[in-house]
Amino acid sequence: MYTIGILQLTQNLDDAVHGFKAELTERGIHAEFHYFNADGNIDQLAKLANQLAEKKVDLIFACSTPAASAAVKLTQDIPVVFTPVFDPIGANLVLSMAEPGGKATGVAGMVKADDKLNFMERILPTIQKIGVLYHTEDSNAIVEVANFRKLNNPKVQFIEIPIKEAEDLSNLLDLLPSDLEALFLPIGKVIEDNFATIVYYTDTLEIPIIASHAPNVPDGALAGLVANHYQLGKECAVKAMQILKGASPSQIPVDTVKAPEIWLNQFTAENLGISFSEDLKEEATEVFE
Amino acid sequence: MLLTRDSVELLAPVGTWDVLEAAIEAGANAVYLGGKRFNMRMFKTTANFDDATLGKAIEYAHRHNVALHVTVNNLISDRELDNMRSYLKLLDELKPDALIVQDLSILQLAREINLSVPLHASIMMNTHNEHAVRALQGYGISRVVVNREMSLSQLSLLKERTGIEVEYFIHGDMCISHSGQCVQSGVVFGQSSNRGRCLKPCRWPYQLVDAATGLPIDDQAPGPYKLAMKDMCLYMKLPELIQAGVTSFKIEGRMRTADFVSGIVKTYRKAIDRYIADPMGYTPDLQDWENLQNTRSRDFSTCYALGNPGATAIGYSGKREPRFFSQAVREADMATLAKRSHPNPTNKPFDPTLSVHVADLASLIAACQNGANTIYIGGEVAKPGIPWTLQTMVQAVEEAGKYDAKVIITTPRITMERECGELEQFFSSLPKINPHGLMVGNLGALTLAQQHSTLPLQAEFSFNVFNHVTAQLLKNNNVKKATISLEATYEQIMQLVENSPLPLEFIVHGSLPAMITDHSIPEAVLTNQYQSDYDPALDTTRYALLDTAGQQHPIMVDQYGRSNLLFAKDLCLLPHLYSLRTVQNYRIEGQYYTPELVGLVTKIYREELDKIVAEQSAYHFDAGQLERIAAASPRELGIGTFRYRLSK
């Protein structure tokens, strides 16, 4: 019987926890779980991590970058398995993806820029000019934008539209170039939270949005290629099991999202006069009417 | 009366199964939760209970001796009525302990199907006076979630006078506007806060400006979040709460985690039990208070429980705001594409009526001279305007009579104890005024008017008439005409009008309130938490809130000290009049206009209506008419809900 601590930033990531537990059960691992959720309150995480340490847990499953950082900062030598951390190296959780070198490993939740671009071209085959709206104070967004800068596709031009603070979105209409064909939203809390304001304006201009945050798709984005948190949790369980059986996290490579899901919004598509191909709809995990 | 452990019900919010178990384990006497279909938390797809799980949840709760209330507290549109009927039948079989309802139509539907489950009036019904409670009791409502603006002493009195069970929010997230009376999210985003989709425009940053000059005013607020209500917490006032006779202590937070809900429930459980066991020896547990503080999201306030809290209930800095749901947007203007289908050809004769709401005699005369059939006077008047007196009302009826126009007297939208007392007194003077009718703003005012007057009654937009069954209910209560909800879109209006057994009126033009707050927004930020002396500027200056999209929202502070926060743009549906032919009854909200503008707007709408009557299908809208109104208007014009096909 193992004791596993779960450190959660918000309940929005609970699917990862469900996947984690289900996979452990599937693999015959019996554990007692201590689940702590900071309910969005980042300042609480250090205290909650300490409480898990006091319970002498064998391992901590940490959801989100701040939760993983809090768990790794514990002085006790408790292994950490994390997800859906986007930049494990930048967040100082691991030394490299192949050889983490410390007490943490996990599955990074960022869908590859390559995959996202291919997805955009698949949905909008003639696309040439895509806006990238991101929050300059968001470390995850900065990582993703940097990845997009490295892409080398002569057909598609990315126009960066940085905003410094959420209120800048109030005047988004003035920031969007008039010949934009689509707007891509990298991951980032401010952009995701205030999606209603973004789609309010893009609707006026009839510009489709490609989202990175799954809930933005039913709320009016055209489509999204997103990580399945349940799946991430399951993959983390495999790593957790290895650790519980004696392997060192320092030697277990960090994986990235393997099979991102396609989410489509049929209602938005109809409003924009766009049609999804049949094979795309078939492949999609969710199609919102 | 002696207290027992059953004197008080601790009512916990539940969004998922694990929260249900945790809340019961922590000591809740009752829980409330929503189905997947109709309730006020519609954003999270993973939360709430599907039909099968609802049954299991009820069984689970009952097995643990815990009551379960199901929230069915959305406004519903005509196209959702069938689904609502079948949902009510299902709930009748599942037998939860109560349904918490908002839409008046559900009272009617419950009668039709002989619903056996008790009904509770949701906070969204904005019940705030004894007369409304009596009307609701007539429909079998056994409990009322009284509105957040009522103090403990007011609700004690309410309970004593009516015998109703009182449920009160004691902890959690609060609205700044009177519940059910905020249409900002619904009109601007097409996502209604009365239908569980609020995008929280009250959490935007705003700057206070002088409405006349647009210049910022140096206020004392420590930040720009002028409408950001703090979280309610009555932990330290538990004895007052229990002695006030509140039956059910309601904790807010149906989207919260099991840990969070469990922690709050345990804290209150312990305190309630300790108090009831030994009231004289009770003191609050300071360790528990500290825990509440440590795990809070926003700062705490006792809100209105102990009286109007003014600035003390607002979290101006925004520092502890857990998340934002939107940022300010530029409201739809006249160039925005209107989402309306081509109207069905109608054979009904077109015999339009035009009503105009005015603030003074000069405006009344201007409206009459330019072709208004009905004039609305009375009700709230914005400072520095002067309320209608008995004398000016007599004059109004006289003047309107010269033009063969009717005068209908409106009553305030919110009528708490003070206003109800004033209304009763006023109704006794009606024979002296001899108006053509009364327009009431809430169920309590309707009840009072029925008792004290034989005049024809109309229902104001604050009744949120969103479907024809609500119209039927009002008709059954002797209402002769009702106003369509401010949030309805073209398609929803058409369906409603087609099915309504009651004549309906639709507001096509004017400055409309997005929210109504019980405190004066400028007074709160200018006078340092109500501590300074009276500042005469507050009675002579008009203020506005400037949002981050650069728009000014006028604040109309009325004679009761409430703030009617207007949309930044005035509604104008002049170009769409032809497609609104089946509506027949049109209104201009002109009480914030000068007499000259009232005259001009009335004249142009009258001309267009007359042209439609004369030319019928050959009618062609003259854009020059719109330009004339736009040039004279104090604010930009916009198409409001017509930006959307359906209000979600």
UniProtKB/TrEMBL annotation, chain A:
SUPFAM superfamilies: Periplasmic binding protein-like I. Coiled coil: none annotated. InterPro entries: ABC_transpt-TYRBP-like (IPR007487), Peripla_BP_I (IPR028082). This is Putative ABC transport system substrate-binding protein. It comes from Pelosinus propionicus DSM 13327. The lineage of its organism: Bacteria, Bacillati, Bacillota, Negativicutes, Selenomonadales.
UniProtKB/TrEMBL annotation, chain B:
It holds the Pfam family Peptidase_U32. The keyword rRNA processing does not apply. Keywords: Hydrolase, Protease. It comes from the Bacteria. The keyword Hydrolase applies. GO terms for molecular function: peptidase activity. GO terms for biological process: proteolysis. PANTHER family: 23S RRNA 5-HYDROXYCYTIDINE C2501 SYNTHASE (PTHR30217:SF10), PEPTIDASE U32 FAMILY (PTHR30217). This is Putative protease.
